Structure formats: C-alpha cells, structure tokens
Amino acid sequence: MQITAFNEYYDKLTTVEKKNSPKELFYKGDFSLLENGRRVAVVGSRKVSELGIRRARKIAKLLVQNDITVVSGLAEGVDSIAHKTAIEFQGHTIGVIGTPLNKYFPAENKELQDFIAENHLLISQFPENYPVTPKSFPIRNRTMALISDATIIIEASEKSGTKHQGWEALRLGRQLFIMENVLNNKISWAEEMLSYGAQVLTNDNFEFLIESIPFLTTKKEYVF
Description:
Blueprint: H1 4-11, H2 15-19, E1 26-29, E2 38-43, H3 50-65, E3 68-72, H4 78-88, E4 93-96, H5 110-119, E5 121-124, H6 136-146, E6 150-153, H7 162-171, E7 175-179, H8 180-184, H9 188-194, E8 199-201, H10 206-211
Parallel strand pairs: 2-3, 2-6, 3-4, 4-5, 6-7, 7-8
Antiparallel strand pairs: 1-5
Helix pairs in contact: 3-4, 6-7
C-alpha cells in the first residue's frame, strides 16, 4: 500500500479539486493510470438487467477502443461488468473502492479486486482497518467522479446510490452521460440532472459523445 505518488498528484490539482479530494489516497498497482490519458467512470445498478449487462459491455468495450481507462467501484452488477470487459479487451481499469485496500466488498469480487491491484490500479481513501459504513460509498463516489473526465450511468432505479456519482460529477464540472433507458423509466433525479448539464446517451449518439470526451483530469507534466 502506497501514498507517496498521490502527494505529487494532489499538488497538481486545482483549488476546487483539492477541496473535493481526499487528503490521502492509498493504492496498489500502476499509479500512472491516474495521470495519463482519459478516464471514464461506468456506474449503475448492482442488480443489473440482462439488457443492462449488454449495454455496460458495449460501453466499456468502446471506451477501451478509444484508449480510455475504465473507472468503476468494484461493486456487483454494472461495476463488475465494466471492469471485466475492460480487462477482456486488453484495456486499462481503475477500481475505486469504499473499503480499505485489504477488505473486499462484495466478497465475491476478491479475485477481481486482487487482479486489478496487481495488473491495473486499485485505490481507496480509507486506511487499513478503517470501519466501513454505508456513508463510505457516497464518499467514494466523489473521489471516483474527481479522477474521471466523465461518468456514464448505465442503469439505475429511483433509490439507486448511483445518483451520488452523477451529482458529484456535475458539481466538479465533469461530463455526465445518462443512458436513454434510465430516463425512459422516469427516474426523477436523472431528469433533474439534465437541467444541470447531463447529456443523454442514445443508440444514435453514444459513439460520437464518447469519442469526443475531453481531457479534463490529466495531471502528468510533459516536457517537449
């Protein structure tokens, strides 16, 4: 478990980003994934439908094809599908967890979490043995939105915790995309997010919108 590289990363954040960033970030794996290129968070229901599974895979595959790192929270459902699809298609993925690095939630994702820690990047703002509470996960969502250039909501219900991720993305000035099926289900918070700048992903526009996601969060200093 390391935090040194994050100290340098933190120094490059804007004033607003620092205000919304954890002061410590513990990680295992390739920290350069947090500094280079574009990152997009793919989030949604834990109890995802078959159609939601197909949508999550389609989106994650397209992100990889555009050399975009797939970020998610290692929860069951959409999160796990996004991570696994990125790995399957030889892309990069970052797991942002709501537990310390030495804990697993859900326990069934232990193998996936360990693989990401060894071959990609696993991060947490919670030190070892920190007590895990329901509040830990919305806090984690803020960090996940912070490190991502955009967030894509694949599928969600009215009471879904996914809404925390959406609001944090908008508040931080990140792009937020909501798949059309979420709005077709008359999810009130999703409809409200449209008035704050969220965009609808449809079968007709999703490729264009994803390909045009800007570089908002790259913190690597390049020398030319």
